[in-house]
Automatic annotation (TrEMBL):
PANTHER family in the record: CELL DIVISION PROTEIN FTSA-RELATED (PTHR32432), ETHANOLAMINE UTILIZATION PROTEIN EUTJ (PTHR32432:SF3)
Cross-referenced CDD domains: ASKHA_NBD_PilM
GO biological processes: cell division
Protein name: Type IV pilus assembly protein PilM
A Pfam family the protein falls into: PilM_2
Domain SHS2: 15-183
Length: 358
C-alpha cells in the first residue's frame, strides 16, 4: 500500500497545490490567517505544449517538468512540498462497509481483500489507499470506508514530475475531490451556509466539462462530457489561419477580428449553454433530484463574455462564476484586478493547496 493518507488528501504543511491539466500547469500557495481563514500568498500558471498531457495521461514528461519548473520559479514560492491531483477517470473509488473496531493493520488487510472485487487489475499493479469516513448508516457495529485505487504508473508519473522539478509530492489527491474542497469554502458563504441547497458545478476545461452536484457537502452526482474551450480555439485556427498557440493567446486577450463575436463566439456560447442544459436534464432524469438551487461555472471558459448570462437565461437557475479565493485575504504579490479574471481556472489548484491545512 502507499501512504495511507495520500490519495484522499491529508497532507502535512507546508506545501503548494499544483494542478497539471491538459492545457497548463497552475500553482497556488495559501497561508492560514486565522481559524478557518486563509490568505492567498501567490499563484501562477504556465501553458503546456499540445500533446503533453492527453486524457489525463502524461505523454511528454520533459515538457511537463519544464512547465512545473517555470511555474514554481514564476510564482516566487520557496515551498518544495507539493500536492498533486489525479484525473477522476484514473482513480477507482468505492465506499465499502467493514466491521468497526479493527486496528489499522487489520483494516489494511481487509481493504486489500475487498479491493480485489472492484479493481480490474492485479493489486501489485495499483496504488491503493483508504480513508475511514465514519459509522455506517443504520449499522452502528460497522464503519463506512472510502477505497481509492489507481494504476501505479499513473501515480508514479506525477511523483516523478515533482522529483525531476526539484520538488517532493507529499499529497496525491483526486482532482474532483480537490475541486469540491475549494467549492465547500464558497458554498459555506451562501445563505445558511448552503444547508439543504443542491449546488451544481460545471468545470469547463480545454477538452472536457466535469459536472458535479453536491448537497450538504456530499457529492450526489458526477459526470464528464467531451466539450471544452479547445473547440473555440480550433474554430479560430480554421477561420483566421493562425496556429493553435496564437489562437489560444488571442482568444484569451480578445484580440481578434470584428466578425469573431458573431461568427465564432456566439455559436460556441450557444453550444456551451446547450451542453449545460442537457447535462441538467440528464441529472434530473437519472437521479431522484428535481431541482438545482445554485449553479457555478469554473474553468478557463467560465469568463467568456456572455456565457454566464446565457446559461442563467436557459437554465432559469441562479448562476455565478466561481472564485475559489472568495473571502480570502490577498498576499502582497497578488493583484486583485488580475485575480478576478484568473480565479475561475484555479479551482483544483486551490483545493490542492487547501490540503496543507487538512
Amino acid at each position: 500500500m502507499i501512504d495511507i493518507k495520500a490519495l484522499l488528501g491529508q497532507g502535512n504543511p507546508p506545501l503548494v497545490g499544483i494542478d497539471i491539466s491538459t492545457s497548463s500547469v497552475r500553482l497556488v500557495e495559501l497561508a492560514q490567517s486565522g481559524k478557518g481563514e486563509y490568505r492567498l500568498e501567490r499563484y501562477a500558471a504556465e501553458p503546456l505544449p499540445r500533446g503533453s498531457v492527453v486524457d489525463g495521461n502524461i505523454e511528454n514528461m520533459d515538457q511537463v517538468v519544464e512547465a512545473v519548473r517555470r511555474v514554481w520559479k514564476k510564482s516566487g514560492t520557496r515551498a518544495k512540498l507539493v500536492a498533486l491531483g489525479m484525473p477522476p477517470a484514473s482513480v477507482i473509488t468505492k465506499k465499502i462497509i467493514l466491521p468497526a473496531g479493527m486496528s489499522e493493520d487489520q483494516l489494511e488487510v481487509q481493504v486489500e481483500s475487498e479491493a480485489s472485487q472492484y479493481i480490474p487489475f492485479a493489486l501489485d499493479e495499483v496504488s491503493l489507499d483508504f480513508d475511514v469516513i465514519g459509522p455506517a448508516a443504520n449499522s452502528p457495529e460497522d464503519i463506512e470506508v472510502m477505497l481509492a485505487a489507481s494504476r501505479r504508473e499513473k501515480v508514479e508519473d506525477r511523483v516523478a514530475i515533482a522529483e525531476a522539478s526539484g520538488l517532493k509530492a507529499t499529497v496525491m489527491d483526486i482532482e474532483s475531490y480537490a475541486a469540491r474542497a475549494a467549492l465547500d469554502r464558497v458554498t459555506a458563504q451562501l445563505p445558511e451556509a448552503g444547508a439543504g441547497q443542491v449546488v451544481a458545478l460545471f468545470q469547463v476545461g480545454a477538452q472536457v466539462t466535469h459536472i458535479s452536484v453536491m448537497l450538504d457537502g456530499v457529492t450526489v452526482y458526477e459526470r464528464e462530457q467531451p466539450f471544452g474551450g479547445n473547440a473555440l480555439t480550433q474554430d479560430i485556427v480554421r477561420a483566421y489561419g493562425m496556429n493553435f498557440d496564437e489562437a489560444e493567446t488571442r482568444k484569451k486577450s480578445g484580440d481578434l477580428p470584428d466578425n469573431y463575436g458573431a461568427e465564432l463566439l456566439t455559436p460556441f456560447l450557444e453550444s456551451a449553454a446547450l451542453e449545460v442544459t442537457r447535462a441538467i436534464q440528464f441529472f434530473y432524469t437519472s437521479t431522484p433530484y428535481t431541482r438545482i438551487d445554485q449553479l457555478f461555472l469554473a474553468g478557463g471558459c467560465a469568463l467568456l463574455p456572455g456565457l454566464l448570462e446565457l446559461v442563467a437565461s436557459r437554465t432559469k437557475i441562479s448562476s455565478a462564476v466561481i472564485s475559489p479565493f472568495k473571502g480570502m485575504q490577498l498576499g502582497s504579490s497578488v493583484r486583485e484586478s488580475q485575480l478576478r479574471s484568473d480565479a475561475p481556472a484555479y479551482l483544483v489548484a486551490c483545493g490542492l493547496a487547501l490540503r496543507r491545512f487538512g
